[in-house]
Amino acid sequence: MKGQYRAAANRRKGLPVYGRGPHAAAPRILTRFGDLFQDHPQPMWIYDVDTLRFLRVNAAACRHYGYTTDEFLHMTIRDIRPRDEHARLEADLAATAGEQKMPQSSGVWTHLKRDGTPIAVRISSHAVTYLGHRARLVFALDVTAQQATERALYRSEQLYRSLIDTMPHQVYWKDLDLHYVGCNRVFAEAAGLDEPQEVVGKSDENLIWRRQAQRMAAEDRIVVDTGHPLLDREDTLTGPDGKQRRYLVNKLPLYGPEGAIIGMLGTLEDITSRRKAEETLRLQSRALDASVNAIVITRQVNRQDVIVYANPAFARISGYELADVVGQDCRFLQADDRDQEGLYLLRDALQTNREATVVLRNYRKDGTLFWNQLHIAPVLDSGGKVTHWVGVINDITDTMRYQQDLEHQSTHDALTGLPNRNLFRDRLDQAISYAARYRNQLWVVVLDLDNFKLINDTLGHAVGDSLLQTVGERLRAALRDSDTVARLGGDEFILLLLDQPGGGLSQRTVQTILEAVSAPMRLGAHDLALTCSMGVAVYPRDGETGSSLFKHADIALYRAKDGGRNQLQFYTEEMNDRVTERTLIEGHLRHALVRNEFLLYFQPRVDCVSGRVVGLEALLRWQHPELGLVSPVRFVSVAEETGRIVEIGEWVLKTACLQAVAWQQAGLAPVPVAVNVSARQFRHAAFVQEVKDALEVSGLEPRYLELELTESVMMHNVDVVIAAMSQLKEMGICLSIDDFGTGYSSLNYLRRFPIDYLKIDQSFVRDMLDDPPGAAIVRSIIALGHSLAFRIIAEGVETPEQLAYLKEEGCDEIQGFLCSRPVPEREAAVLLGSER
Predict the structure, then answer these.
(1) Residue 105: helix, strand or coil by DSSP?
(2) Theoretical Cys-Cys bridge with 658: which of 600, 698, 711, 786, CB 3.0 to 4.6 Å?
(3) What is the pLDDT of residue 502?
(4) SS3 state of residue 813
(5) Distances from the Cα of 332 to the Cαs of 320, 325, 341, 377, 640, in angstroms?
(6) Alpha-carbon dihedral sign for residues 569, 574, 576, 582
(7) What is the pLDDT of residue 161?
(8) How far is C-alpha 50 from the chain's CA centre?
(9) Contact 163, 149 (CB under 8 A)
């Protein structure tokens, strides 16, 4: 129905009917300036060059000729001409057939109105392409009255003068010698004369355009001598202000009463402003077409702002061609996405007739989203009424995506895509506010992957990154939509679990997450069995602020890791005591070395066959004046974390070497002294040199020094480790792997290590008599070590039954309370004295 209404309205206005038939789309020029064509006071039409049928006419043509638009569109240009001019018409059409691209002037013709009245019409036409047809745009000027006036000049000089003086164009006439005989007032003003009479007897050489006089005289002479008129020719002449102006020139032979040529009649129409306007329109049109921004022009029809023009950039940005959108309201670009702040601002601007700039979400023809910065401005007519709106569309999709990416990067972890610490704290604060209002619980869970650094260093950072991404995905899958998982950095994650009706939180909730993370995974060519440790703080029991919950969950995590890892721990007040203890230890540890508070204890190693003491292991103790004898369990981990273990380890190494030399100088049995080397100490760049210095300062032979390394030390940067161990072996130092079987071992690397001993961890020895799998592990380690030519030392031997089993399986040495507890230097000397 809307289409029928629009078609009817267009017929009443003299516009073509769009939507069907050959008039489904208007040519660009008429689409833009249809109003100018329709409302022009001079009759205008467009006709098909091949069929001569009218394709479009304006309202002035309908009024002047008496035909309706529909009648015109069923006629040809032959139908408005008398039969005696048909031959001339055919000749004119044939002459211009090869010049379709050039503007043509077809002279003065006789046309017939609908009632049969003949009129004299001066025709000017231009080649155009309209609706895919080769066509011509025709301007028709009724000169019937002008010709009548010219004939009347012979009858009434007074009437002649009145008429020509009232004409808006310049009119003049010359005699056969091309001297001016007369002119109207408009011509006199243009020639710089005060009165028309001043022109009489003058030639063009006497007027302001004297530089063009010779050329003008040549044209005039042709008209006078041949009688052929010169019609509708454009020329540039000098105006009274000295500036060049553009004119439309007509020159006609002037006949006397007897029919002889007595001179020439000329008219000049100043078209300077018209040509400037046309040039301005052409440049503006080109600017619109060349603009990288989409430009749309709308007019209000039935309370809708329908599109009447869109430039090529609009098609490029939106995917819609001009034919797709003409006559449509611009709102179709928002599809169903109408709840936009920019739309409300846009409607307000349209209602108040003011300019505005808004940002909208629009959708292309293929349905994809693009962000649009739209600036609209009203177009006013001479009366100040809004007739159209111009909209400039700037595609800011890339800018919006960049801003969104920046916002995402500021709130999310780049590797896993999870929220980062900042976003987590924001969500935690919001969750606490909600929980406080409705008296709900919420849990903060800190999760740390066990041995991630070892895996990352051994298998490479690419595998480590992939592992973190996999863990992030597992955590997301294990949580509810209302929960949050964030990555704090490294291998540490944090969870926010919300209490919900019908889905309350329980320890099983967190245990499920722990199991999800610990499920076996395959990354590339590697099968990994990952474990993690988790600490939980509960709101409001463990804290009422985000910082306190975070702190207490972190304390619980440390407790889980201290407890052997792969554990879940809820925060308790006792854990806070442990933090206080750690703070205390760290404070005192800072000065322990310079205050000579450290000392060494020694525990013997005994040969399983002979029962003789074959070595001593140096064990660090801390004698604090206030805390008493501090167990290594209390301070070694703190020393590791703070980095003080490096200088402490250097002290242990030198002190153990000096003590071994002192025993030998005292005549005691010379046995090797074993020193534990921490991971951080061994990775210290100067470690090998420190060993050399300790041997040199003490004078101890290298064969009496053993260095005990853990598996974690040896699996970090294997090639560098092997190189350092080879240097130590070349010096004559013995090497052993401590706590074998509890770390991340690789048999491929084990065969490359230049070691002398494997020490079976006491956890396997303690349970081997009651645990068949544990016994099998002990047997396997002994067999493996012997196959690689290593001596085997069993730690933590406490009973004769354990000793008997180890001897039966071929273990070489034992160490444990069955032989001796760790003892001070004096008691260790007694043990060595008994060996002597």
Answers:
(1) strand
(2) 698
(3) 61
(4) strand
(5) 11, 9, 17, 20, 67
(6) negative
(7) 67
(8) 54
(9) yes
User: What tokens were used for 140?
Assistant: 């028709």
H-helix or E-strand containing 138?
strand 133-142
Q: Which two structure tokens, joined as six digits, stand for 411?
A: 């709130």
The span from the CA of 222 to the CA of 755, in Å, is 121
pLDDT tens digits for 22-48?
343 444 544 555 777 888 889 999 999
> Region 499-503: what's the mean pLDDT?
69
Integer Cα distance of 704 and 670 in angstroms: 8
- Cα 635 vs. chain centroid, distance in angstroms? 50
pLDDT for the residue 56: 94
- Low-confidence winner among 5-19, 217-231, 453-467 (lowest mean pLDDT): 5-19
Q: Is 244 helix (H, G, I), strand (E, B) or coil?
A: strand
pLDDT at 285 (0 to 100) = 67
Sign of CA dihedral 285, 289, 290, 291: positive
Burial (CB < 10 A; 0-12, 13-18, 19+), residue 552, is buried
- C-alpha to C-alpha distance for 17 and 328, rounded to whole angstroms: 15
Which of 541, 532, 533 minimizes the C-alpha distance to 572? Answer: 541
Q: For residue 18, give the DSSP letter.
A: P
Q: Render pLDDT for 784-832 as a digit per residue (tens, 0 to 9).
A: 999 989 999 999 999 999 999 999 999 999 999 999 999 999 999 998 8
Secondary structure letter of residue 383 according to DSSP? T
At 710, give phi and psi (nearest 5°).
Answer: -85, 160
Q: Degrees (nearest 5) of the Cα angle 777, 781, 785?
A: 170
Q: What is the dihedral of CA 350, 352, 355, 359, to 10 degrees?
A: -50
Alpha-carbon distances, residue 72 vs 27, 67, 118, 486, 688 (angstroms): 19, 6, 17, 75, 107
pLDDT of residue 33: 55
- Give residues with Cβ within 8 angstroms of 60, minimum separation 6: 40, 41, 42, 43, 44
Measured distance CA(152)–CA(155) in Å, rounded: 5
Q: Do 535 and 513 form a contact (C-beta atoms < 8 A)?
A: no
What is the pairing mode between strands 613-624 and 673-676?
Answer: parallel
Lookup: tokens for 563: 């407890």
Q: Is the pTM of this model over 0.85?
A: no
Q: How many CB atoms lie within 10 A of CB 236?
A: 12
